[in-house]
Design a protein that fits this description.
Layout lengths: L1 E8 L13 H9 L3 H22 L7 E3 L13 E3 L7 E7 L2 E7 L5 E6 L9 H12 L16 H4 L1 E6 L6 E8 L3 E7 L5
Parallel strand pairs: 1-9
Antiparallel strand pairs: 1-5, 2-3, 4-5, 6-8, 7-8
Helix pairs in contact: 1-2
The structure holds zinc ion.
Zinc ion binds next to loops.
Length: about 190
C-alpha cells in the first residue's frame, strides 16, 4: 500500500472551486480577511477532496470531511474522512506561503507539514521544524514544540519519516506515516495553473 502526497499552489485557487466545498468549508474560506489566507484555505480543502475522491473512486463533492475540534468541538479541527466504505483513508493537510500539500495514508495515521523557510525565525532549523510538526500531526510525538527531535521510540511506534521535496524552491516539507507503507507517490495538482 502506498502513501500519497498531493501538491498544489495558491495560483490554482480559483473561485470556481468554491462549488466543490461543503457549507462549513465555504464559510471558513469566506470568513478569512486576507486573500492569500482565503486562497490557501480554499486550495487545501479542495485538494483534500480531490485526493480522497480519487482514492475512493467517488466525486470530490461526495467526500465527507469531519473537522470537529477534539478540544472544543468547533469546526476547525484536523480533517477526518467519514465514509461507509472501508477502509477509510487517513489524511493530513498543510500549507505555507504559495504551497499546499495533502497526504493520504490507506492505513494508519499520517502527518504532513510544509514550511516556507523565509517565514521561520531560524531558517536553518526548517527540516527539524517540519519533521516535528509532521510527527505531532501523526500522533507520533506528544508535543510539537518541545524542541525534541524525532522521539527514540519512532521505530517502535512503527512510523517512518519521509523528507519531501517541495515543487518550489525555498520550502521544506516532511511526512510521517506507518513504516509499512511504500514511499510516497507524488501528484502535482494544477500546479501550473
Ligand atoms: Zn477548538
Amino acid at each position: 500500500m502506498t502513501l500519497e502526497v498531493w501538491w498544489s499552489s495558491l495560483a490554482a485557487a480559483d473561485r470556481d472551486l468554491l462549488g466543490l466545498l461543503d457549507v462549513g468549508e465555504r464559510a471558513r474560506v469566506e470568513s478569512l480577511e486576507r486573500p492569500a489566507d482565503r486562497g490557501r484555505s480554499l486550495i487545501s480543502a479542495v485538494m483534500l477532496r480531490v485526493a480522497v475522491a480519487a482514492h475512493l473512486g467517488i466525486a470530490p463533492a461526495e467526500v465527507v470531511v469531519d473537522r470537529t475540534c477534539a478540544e472544543c468541538g468547533g469546526p476547525h479541527g484536523a480533517p477526518r474522512i467519514v465514509s461507509d466504505s472501508t477502509p477509510v483513508p487517513w489524511v493530513s493537510v498543510s500549507h505555507s506561503g504559495l504551497l499546499a500539500v495533502v497526504a493520504l495514508s490507506p492505513r494508519g495515521p499520517v502527518g504532513v507539514d510544509v514550511q516556507r523557510i523565509g517565514d521561520l525565525t531560524d531558517p536553518a532549523s526548517g527540516r527539524e521544524w517540519v519533521t516535528r510538526e509532521a510527527l505531532f500531526k501523526a500522533g507520533a510525538a506528544a508535543q510539537a514544540d518541545d524542541g525534541a527531535a524525532a522521539p527514540p521510540s519512532l521505530a517502535a511506534a512503527g512510523v517512518a519519516v519521509h523528507e519531501l521535496r517541495p515543487p518550489f524552491a525555498g520550502y521544506v516539507a516532511a511526512v510521517v506515516a506507518p513504516a509499512e507503507l511504500d514511499a510516497p507517490r507524488i501528484t502535482h495538482w494544477r500546479l501550473d495553473a
